[in-house]
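Priority: medium. Attachment 1 of 2:
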């Protein structure tokens, strides 16, 4: 009889208890504080949820735990579905997961609530590029170029240069190489630190002209650089591998892959990918120099085992004294 009573209790009350147990801790905490009157003055329960729960999603996003971040944010949808900041946060997670249509929908809804949100508008522009909607992307970045925010610094660059660089890239990807070249040059005149502009201007466009890569290849490479910038190594590596497989004589993805592998201390993999690049493009001195850098990092530049690689690097610099990368590596080793 006692067992039957327990089972009846579970049937009647088990589901509500399970629902409450699944509720995010931050929501329960905010409800308790609201009930006890201990919320900060001027803050209601909804504002508390926004502060506490969104921070959890943002932390997971920052740590690269995108699936967990999305799960956390989706639990808050009924509380924050109209919040521009919430929609922006979730849009960024969708973008990081490669779910670009859903990211765009969230960015659009966020901007409908807060039209002046510069970072959201920028991310919307990047999303449109990933969706190959180049005219819409260009319109978005051009609109931002005309805004007051264009006079500040954004992502380590003067914002005007950053926006011009993206417009130049869009023009190149859309087929207007002459217009893209002009805009990329303007971006570098505004801020010479703009590596995206310099890469597309001095590496991408010449390779496009020779047929080493096409516009689709440059779009694939752009996507890889975006994901690398997010810190999503796994997806960026897969994307650079896809570019290399399709365009083996296009040097830039080898260097991007090398950066990703070096930053993860995967020096043997770094050597392997750069050796493949040397075989495909034997005349590229930078590929050889970069491969030697990986060898030196693997062995320890001052070790006896590293001496042959170090001698090879010095000989390479002697033969090509104007090569910037050999100088950079030797400077880093205090040997230049």
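Attachment 2 of 2:
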């Amino acid at each position: 009889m006692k067992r039957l009573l327990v089972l009846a209790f579970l049937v009647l009350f088990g589901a509500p208890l399970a629902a409450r147990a699944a509720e995010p801790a931050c929501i329960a905490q905010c409800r308790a504080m609201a009930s006890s009157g201990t919320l900060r003055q001027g803050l209601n329960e909804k504002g508390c949820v926004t502060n506490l729960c969104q921070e959890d999603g943002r932390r997971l996003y920052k740590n690269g735990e995108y699936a967990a971040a999305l799960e956390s944010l989706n639990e808050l949808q009924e509380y924050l579905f109209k919040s521009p900041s919430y929609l922006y946060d979730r849009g960024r997670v969708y973008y990081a997961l490669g779910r670009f249509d859903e990211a765009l929908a969230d960015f659009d809804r966020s901007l409908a609530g807060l039209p002046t949100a510069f970072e959201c508008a920028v991310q919307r522009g990047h999303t449109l590029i990933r969706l190959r909607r180049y005219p819409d992307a260009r319109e978005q970045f051009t609109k931002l170029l005309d805004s007051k925010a264009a006079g500040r610094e954004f992502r380590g660059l003067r914002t005007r240069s950053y926006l011009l660089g993206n417009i130049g890239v869009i023009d190149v990807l859309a087929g207007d190489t002459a217009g893209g070249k002009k805009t990329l040059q303007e971006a570098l005149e505004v801020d010479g630190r703009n590596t995206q502009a310099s890469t597309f201007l001095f590496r991408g466009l010449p390779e496009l002209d020779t047929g080493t890569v096409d516009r689709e290849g440059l779009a694939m490479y752009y996507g890889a650089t975006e994901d690398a910038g997010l810190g999503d190594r796994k997806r960026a590596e897969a994307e650079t591998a896809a570019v290399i497989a399709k365009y083996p004589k296009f040097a830039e993805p080898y260097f991007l892959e090398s950066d990703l592998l070096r930053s993860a201390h995967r020096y043997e993999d770094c050597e392997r990918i750069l050796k493949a690049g040397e075989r495909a493009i034997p005349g590229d001195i930078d590929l050889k120099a970069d491969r030697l850098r990986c060898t030196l990092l693997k062995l320890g530049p001052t070790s006896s085992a590293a001496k042959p690689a170090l001698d090879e690097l010095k000989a390479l610099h002697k033969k090509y004294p104007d090569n910037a990368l050999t100088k950079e590596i030797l400077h880093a080793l205090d040997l230049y």
